[in-house]
Each structure stands twice: as structure tokens, then as C-alpha cells.
């Protein structure tokens, strides 16, 4: 039996589209309504609201200081021993590349991973950086912007290819519109869950005033196959902005995670731009797991998302570089390997699914 959630105008487990009422939109912690008012029945809720009245966890802020911005403590530059162990060798780089290149899910051609995060968190840059590792030079496969609004407007799928001219590997990274910070930016919760369930076709342009639905979304999939669904969600957060993310964003992320979990999707997180918060890591990326500042940022991200820090890995995306670097490659490849481990859990949890067909 489908589990209905009237707050979002969406029924989990069904392909019945939501009505199209005047949307209630989020502005990173404050709710705004379109001019003329809204109907109380089945509002469409954007991801940038508080999504309810949950208290921000004490790990983020105590109740008296809910909106107080987080700031990194003044810490000594680094630890003598790393708080996580990662081999920074050419052998490790080669091993990770082989593992990712040879990866094939058990009952579909590729694992689809949806990247979700605020505007400017580095989702598109991560996709381009991963492809750059396999190309052997820095390329911007996913177009990247530097604006305060999302540069990515539509749902795009990127099949990662280990070698030029060869068939793509068993990984598809899915890029979508960033979670916005104004009344008319960012996808709705309904749209994100529709993407995860496989209803939304590639190329769909998101609109906060036109939710995904059967009658008006071109190419809407009423009964998506296993291959068309999302198999893992990777949240992407910017280490530089950890001090400015509003405390109420925690409730948004955590309630979003609850709905994603109800769909049986495992979630991980990437912390980008760690080189910009730690000079030692910027100088030498192998210092990342000796950095107290990066460790504090990951703990902060864990509290914000409501997940264990073991689900979160730091990454350094390629930005101004023209050539790839072995150690940066290792950090990026380790993140991809981390994601694939949780994508595999989806297939394990759903094995053998009724629609499973071996390629």
C-alpha cells in the first residue's frame, strides 16, 4: 500500500503525480509565498525550507543559539598521525582506477548516483574532475558556473568512461539543479523524489512553479525500470561555506534524507574545497587526513546532514589546473570507490528484484 504524505502532495510507492497548486517555496530557512496567497491543500514544498518544526540537533547549535553560524576553532596545523588511512601511491591510484573501470552492477548496466547539494557546492566540478582523472588531463565535461544561482538547470546524466572511445563504465553521475537560497530557485522536494524514483527523463528543465507530473512533463516515466532509477544519493557540501550554512538547513537535509531512506536508497556525502579551508592541504593534498580543520568540517557536515562522519569523504576538485595530479586523483578515486560501495548495497538490498534483468 502506498504511503501518503499530504505535506508534499506526493505518494511514495505510486506513480500518481501531485496536483499543481501554488507552491510554498524555501529561502534557506524562511518561508515565502507567491503573491496572491497559497492554498493550504497539498502545497509543493521546496528543499530550501525548514521542512517542519524540528529542532536543530544539539550537535549543531543549542536551542538558544539555533541560528548562530558555525566557525572553525583555532586548531594546530596538523596531527602526527592521520585520522583516516589512505595510501598515497601510484599503485593505489592504479588499483582504484582498475576497480572503478571494471565495476559492473549485478543486474543493470550502470549504477546511477544522484548528486545533491546547495548552489556552488561543487557537484558539476566533481563530475568533471572524476572524468579528468580517466582522461589524464583536466577537462570540464560538466559545465561549471561561478554564479550565486544554479548554473545547472536540467537533469543531466554523465556516463564515466575510463578510456576514450571505449564503452562507458558501470557508473553514471547525475547532475541536477542546485538547492537554491531564494524564493524562485532550487528544485522542489517532489521533483527530487521523482528523479530518484526514475520518473524524470534526462534533459528535464526544473521549474519551482511547475512540478514534475504525468500530464505536463514531457517523457514522464510512469513505470520506470531498475536501470532508470537512482541507486545512491551523494550529498555535496562546500567546506568553505560550512560556517555560513543556516542552522535550519539541518532540518531540511534530515527530513529529505528520511524520505530518500524510505525509498531504500543509501546516502553518502562529499565535502569539497577542503584545500581552501586548510593551507597545509592546499600545499600538499596528502595532508588532508592529518588536518584538524578538515576533520572539524567533516564533523560539522555530519551534524548538518544527520549522518555518521564515516559516510563523508573529503575531495579536492580540479579548478584552475590544466594537468592532473596523482595525489588529487587518489582522493577523487577514493571518493568514487566510497560511493560505489553504497550503490552496491542498493542492489544487495533489492536482490533479486522482480524487474532485474542481467545485461
UniProtKB/TrEMBL annotation:
The organism named in the record is: Takifugu rubripes
Region described as Disordered: spans on this chain: 24-60
Q: Where is the composition biased (Basic and acidic residues)?
A: 29-43
Q: Its GO biological process terms?
A: immune response
What's the protein called, per UniProt?
G domain-containing protein
Amino acid at each position: 500500500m502506498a504511503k501518503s504524505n499530504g505535506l508534499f502532495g506526493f505518494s511514495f510507492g505510486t506513480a500518481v503525480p501531485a496536483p499543481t497548486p501554488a507552491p510554498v517555496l524555501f529561502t534557506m530557512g524562511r518561508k515565502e509565498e507567491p503573491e496572491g496567497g497559497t492554498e493550504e491543500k497539498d502545497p509543493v514544498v521546496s528543499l530550501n525550507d525548514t521542512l517542519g518544526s524540528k529542532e536543530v540537533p544539539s550537535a549543531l547549535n543549542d536551542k538558544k543559539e539555533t541560528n548562530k553560524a558555525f566557525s572553525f576553532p583555532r586548531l594546530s596545523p596538523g596531527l602526527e598521525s592521520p585520522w583516516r588511512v589512505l595510501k598515497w601511491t601510484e599503485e593505489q591510484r592504479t588499483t582504484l582506477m582498475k576497480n572503478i573501470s571494471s565495476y559492473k552492477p549485478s543486474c543493470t548496466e550502470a549504477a546511477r548516483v544522484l548528486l545533491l547539494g546547495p548552489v556552488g557546492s561543487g557537484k558539476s566540478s566533481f563530475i568533471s574532475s572524476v572524468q579528468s582523472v580517466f582522461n589524464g588531463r583536466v577537462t570540464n565535461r560538466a559545465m561549471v558556473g561561478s554564479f550565486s544561482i544554479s548554473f545547472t538547470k536540467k537533469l543531466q546524466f554523465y556516463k564515466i568512461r575510463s578510456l576514450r572511445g571505449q564503452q562507458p563504465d558501470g557508473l553514471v553521475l547525475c547532475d541536477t539543479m542546485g538547492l537554491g537560497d531564494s524564493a524562485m530557485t532550487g528544485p522542489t522536494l517532489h521533483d527530487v523524489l521523482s528523479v530518484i524514483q526514475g520518473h524524470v527523463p534526462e534533459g528535464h528543465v526544473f521549474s519551482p512553479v511547475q512540478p514534475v507530473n504525468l500530464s505536463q512533463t514531457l517523457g514522464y516515466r510512469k513505470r520506470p525500470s531498475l536501470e532508470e532509477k537512482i541507486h545512491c544519493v551523494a550529498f555535496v557540501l562546500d567546506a568553505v561555506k560550512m560556517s555560513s550554512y543556516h542552522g535550519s538547513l539541518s532540518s531540511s537535509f534530515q527530513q529529505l534524507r528520511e524520505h530518500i531512506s524510505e525509498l531504500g536508497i543509501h546516502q553518502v556525502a562529499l565535502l569539497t574545497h577542503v584545500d581552501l579551508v586548510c593551507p597545509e592541504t592546499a600545499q600538499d593534498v596528502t595532508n588532508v587526513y592529518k588536518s584538524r580543520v578538515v576533520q572539524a568540517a567533516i564533523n560539522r557536515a555530519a551534524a548538518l546532514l544527520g549522518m555518521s562522519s564515516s559516510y563523508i569523504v573529503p575531495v579536492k576538485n580540479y579548478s584552475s589546473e590544466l594537468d592532473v595530479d596523482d595525489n588529487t586523483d587518489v582522493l577523487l578515486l577514493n571518493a568514487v570507490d566510497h560511493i560505489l560501495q553504497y550503490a552496491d548495497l542498493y542492489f544487495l538490498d533489492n536482490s533479486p528484484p522482480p524487474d532485474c534483468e542481467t545485461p
